[in-house]
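Handoff note, outgoing to incoming analyst
You'll be picking up this chain. Sequence as last confirmed:
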Amino acid sequence: MEDTEVGARNLEEIATPFDPVVGGGADDRAIADAVVNVLVEQLQHAEKVRRVTRDGAQADRFAARSLKQIAALDRALRRRQEIRKPRQELLAKFKDTLSRIAEAVRDAADGFMQEHVGMMDRAVDQYLRDHSHPELLVRRLREFESDWPRAFASRILTALKGVSQDTLNSLK
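Most recent structure output, in case you need it:
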């Protein structure tokens, strides 16, 4: 009876690929990875033993076990692929959203600059036609200087809201 207790205590100390899964939150990806790793290790071990075995009947049994392990490994790999698919789809959606954000910000900034630089061009043109009112040019320059950060931020935020809303709608 003492041997059984010692054996049980020794078993507790032996590390396995499933140790991170036990007692923690059940992470499907971690479990699928652990199952695949164990099956590959078992398959590798069985193949090594089969190669060094001189007994033909025993080698056949190892070969049959290897075939069963290969089938189990195939199922585990398919399951792991199924588990990873939603994450991969989400990453693809995230990359697409980042690309669309960059494009929307670029377009919004370009539109803003065209509009506001055009406003400044018109103010300068008006001043050049009629030099009698420089205060109008100065006022327009001050308005531009004080308004552009708010107007620019508003234009960018509007573009970002559109992209984020499109992304949220596509996730539903």
